[in-house]
Amino acid sequence: MQTFIRHMSIILRYGKMYLDPRFAGLNVGSSQRFFVKMICEQPGITQDKLQPLVLLDKSNITRALDKLEKDGFITKKRYLRDKRTAHLYPTEKANAIYPKVVAIEEEWFEILLGDFTPEEKARFEALLQKAADGAMKAVGVDEAQEKKADGL
């Protein structure tokens, strides 16, 4: 078990070291890039729909979205029917960096799994999903809801 935790820690730590400078060049933090990506892929998504995708508490999501709005990456539109709900839309600035965000993520994925065979990649992904399901179950997250949020 210690080996597993160590390896996960290495992947996360070195991933952050690899990704942070690349995303900094886009003027977006590596943690914010996920929001940019999701909003570009789902224009009009609401903050409530983002929460199960990112598994962060509402205050952290609000802070990240406020920063993205301040920095010109997203706009929030409230509708008369429900003024509490804001729909999130990418700006031209977000749409401009979106392909670069995807490319950086794909580059990191290829670095991590480049030596895997297609079968190993599929098995690794299945095992990671199984571990993630166990983690979600341990903290009371509904797996079906999470998979639906992921578009699976």
Report on the structure:
This protein has 7 helices and 3 strands, in the order ααβααββααα. Helix 1 runs antiparallel to helix 5 (92-113) and helix 2 (33-41) crosses helix 5 (92-113). The protein has a 3-stranded antiparallel β-sheet with strand order 1-3-2. With 152 residues, the chain is mainly alpha-helical.
Portion of residues in beta strands equals 5-15%
Question: Structural class of the secondary elements?
Answer: mainly alpha
Give the overall pLDDT as a whole number. 87
Give a count of the beta strands, DSSP E runs of length 2 or more: 3
Descriptors:
152 residues, mainly alpha, 3-stranded antiparallel β-sheet, 7 helices, 3 strands, disordered C terminus
Task: Sum this structure up briefly.
With 152 residues, the chain is mostly helical.
Topology:
Blueprint: H1 2-24, H2 33-41, E1 45-46, H3 47-54, H4 58-70, E2 74-78, E3 86-90, H5 92-113, H6 118-138, H7 143-149
Antiparallel strand pairs: 1-3, 2-3
Helix pairs in contact: 1-5, 2-5
